[in-house]
């Protein structure tokens, strides 16, 4: 049974108290023993797309990063470039977006390195020999780090129902080509009755695979690579994933990518899940989404499966219902957690310790 530590938060607790609780979790879990003098420590985070307000804040994590630096390792904040059109598609725009959200050296005490390089070509194949992938593509600057801290903001998700530690590493340690192969089975379809020909999906499609024809959007299936950005973009519910079972495949592929991201770092990865400003969709959305729950707290663990299981359990407990299942009835988010356990990433049974 894995241990998960939780520090409960009041709704919208002030930054100073949030950072104190993060440090209390760091101490309670004994995370300082993970890091070795001189090694690089990749601190995986999502800086938040433009207009996003739910992302983890730089002022929350500065004291944690200072504590990590005292062990003698060299932490840096990191993420990889995105498939979809936005502010994080290449390293230059990505870094500018991080600074816009306050992630400067002054505010965090550490530099940022976009782990897959300027145009997402900096990656290596990591052998995993699983059902979907024999090997996965992992960004080199994550792969070459000796240890890792995974800071994940828990949210709902349009294709996986939910995202936290497993999803953060699955997509976040992968270059664009690695993200694309995880999404490859998604095939969106336009309901022409609902389409208003507004063109928003065209603006967001990274493959220019959509055009307006005869008063409605049409998707060129041979160009589409299944990133699902058009589904998120459409405000009229006119685009749906047309292939049943793809959420299952996507979630299993995600777990396999996470396995590749932590391979070789056994005992060298610490996870924090932030159950704060939880939203229906992830921090990739270019908008200030409302919360779907009051804030719950921050969790810490050495086990990505246990921490994700505890996160969904606490969300259910707080709200007296399974909000994620109500919001995304077609996506059984349990799949990613169950399959991650099956392939040896961790275990779903956990012991919760209050800090
Ligand atoms: S049409 Fe395909 S490639 Fe374009 S946004 Fe939609 S899912 Fe992505
Ligand atoms: S965003 Fe929706 S309504 Fe607008 S063109 Fe695309 S499918 Fe049609």
Structure keywords:
8-stranded mixed β-sheet; single chain; 355 residues; 16 strands; binds iron/sulfur cluster; globular; 13 helices; alpha/beta; two-stranded antiparallel ribbon; Rossmann fold; Alpha-Beta Plaits
Beta-strand percentage range: 15-25%
Shape: globular
Question: What would you give as the CATH superfamily of the largest domain?
Answer: LarA, N-terminal domain
- In the CATH hierarchy, the architecture of the largest domain is 3-Layer(aba) Sandwich
CATH uppermost class of the largest domain: Alpha Beta
As a percent range, the share of helical residues equals: 25-40%
Cross-sheet strand order for the largest sheet? 4-3-2-7-14-15-1-16
Mean pLDDT rating: 93
> Count of helical segments?
13
Count of discrete domains? 2
The CATH topology annotation of the largest domain reads as Rossmann fold
- Residue windows where pLDDT falls under 50 for at least 5 positions: none
Class inferred from helices and paired strands: alpha/beta
Oligomerization status of the protein chains: single chain
Distinct small molecules bound, one entry per kind: iron/sulfur cluster
Intertermini distance: 18 Å
Number of strands: 16
